[in-house]
């Protein structure tokens, strides 16, 4: 059967009186009403089989712009669209709200700055079934808001949630290769087994923390579930011009490393200001490499060495902030 537009859907199933669907698309959003409108327009234009039972759940994470109005306006002509509000600030809180309120057997995640391709939903669900796996991630291509600078090579794409280096299909066996939230799908039964997103991780307002996707998939893999990358499950991720600056990358690395150190700590008994002593010589070596790199290394390598210094600074900040909580 040829897939139809998003407005068509079969009658929902029921499970113990609770309405269940094949899949729920979860979009968490914070103060991006205009961009969210673009994302919802792309989702509304998906080519989906008429037999598919699905919905779109927008989770508003304390937005103070026109987010709710954008969703309610589209709901008038799109009954598949639902609105949820999550008062606890943080992307992980919002995603967990989406998981709790969604009615689908498979939960597809994307972001409010992402434009899925028309066959995204069908390609994702088809791949899950063909490979008989429990979760998957897909291709995330950039929509550059400005020409990327010469130093911004593929080694930095992970900072921007870009995954476009491969378009084939392959198993994901390491948490280091975890899908990005811009394009991933997980069966509901997996969340029932391993739990939701770690609310100590992930972006919170203006704080650029991350790591929640990798931590979740570490638990998924450890529990023995199977994960695959689907190169034909494709979305396009807007990368605004302000994110193509070294200042943004420094801030991203600092916030992430600080958050990780604050919540997870670092091993080591001999400490100064709650910082393990072995980190200080490592930091000095990194600093020396960064200084030398400014004169001897290519632009991307030189900046990568600077990012390592930012990592240490973030770790130091996190450990310092956590010093009163250490047993």
UniProtKB/TrEMBL annotation:
Keyword Glycosyltransferase annotated: yes
SUPFAM superfamilies in alphabetical order: Nucleotide-diphospho-sugar transferases
Residue ranges of every copy of the Glycosyltransferase 2-like domain listed in the record: 24-194
Keyword ATP-binding attached: no
Keywords: Glycosyltransferase, Transferase
Family the entry assigns: Belongs to the glycosyltransferase 2 family.
UniProt name for this protein: Glycosyltransferase
Organism field: Aromatoleum petrolei
